[in-house]
Amino acid sequence: MSSLTRLKVAWFIVSAMLVAGAVLPMFTFSQFYIFNDTFSLASGIFHLLMQGEPLLFIIVFSFSILMPAWKMLLLYRLLHAQDGDNARRHRQLHVLSFLGKWSMLDVFVVAILVVTVKLGAIANITVHVGIYLFTLAVLASMLLTHRIAALAGAGR
After folding, report:
1. Which of 35, 46, 80, 94 has the most CB atoms lying inside 10 A of its own CB?
2. Could you tell me which of 76, 90, 88 has the C-alpha nearest to residue 153?
3. C-alpha 15: how far from its chain's center?
4. Domain ranges for the chain
5. What is the 3-class SS of the chain, one letter each residue?
6. What are the phi and psi torsion angles at 42 (to 5°)?
7. Cβ–Cβ < 8 Å for 32, 40
8. pLDDT tens for the 156 residues of the chain, in order
9. How far apart are CA 33 and CA 66, in angstroms?
10. pTM (predicted TM-score)
11. Which CATH number fits domain 3-153: 1.10.287, 1.20.140, 1.25.40, 2.60.40?
């Protein structure tokens, strides 16, 4: 299997992990051992909107859903770019470089949420597979970005 084919397979796996990590349960919040709410990243973000927090919704949605999706789209385009399209490849690598500076922010947002809830005396949080899968997907996407950028920068 060629390195390009392996990168395409890795891209598919990382993309699937990001989607699964965003929709699988991440947390169960328990208050007074009576009330339990289980949230995925996606349901938690839309819960912010329903609770009248549009600014927080926009920030978390942008960094946790839109930016990783944009990054994966750019990686896909780089993997499938035609030879000789150097100007486009250069622009995409520049955008990926910019996104790379923000790539762990989505994990930090989730981590801050966990710490905030853990510190509450009346609430407890149980962590589920979604947070592990999402974090692993973000880290894997960083490695994949590095490999694809190196391949694209070398002109394939």
Report:
1. 46
2. 90
3. 9
4. 3-153
5. CCHHHHHHHHHHHHHHHHHHHHHCEEEEEEECCCEEEEEEHHHHHHHHHHCCCHHHHHHHHHHHHHHHHHHHHHHHHHHCCCCCCHHHHHHHHHHHHHHHCCCCHHHHHHHHHHHHHHHCCCEEEEECHHHHHHHHHHHHHHHHHHHHHHHHHCCC
6. -65, -45
7. no
8. 788 899 999 999 999 999 999 999 988 877 766 778 888 989 988 888 888 889 888 988 888 889 889 889 988 988 887 766 677 777 787 787 777 777 666 667 666 666 655 555 566 778 899 989 998 998 898 889 888 888 776 554
9. 35
10. 0.82
11. 1.20.140
Read off φ and ψ for residue 37, nearest 5 degrees.
-125, 125
Exposed (0-12), middle (13-18) or buried (19+): which is 89, by Cβ within 10 Å? Answer: buried
Cβ neighbours, 10 Å, residue 66: 12
Report in angstroms the alpha-carbon separations of 48 from 45, 51, 71, 141. 5, 5, 24, 26
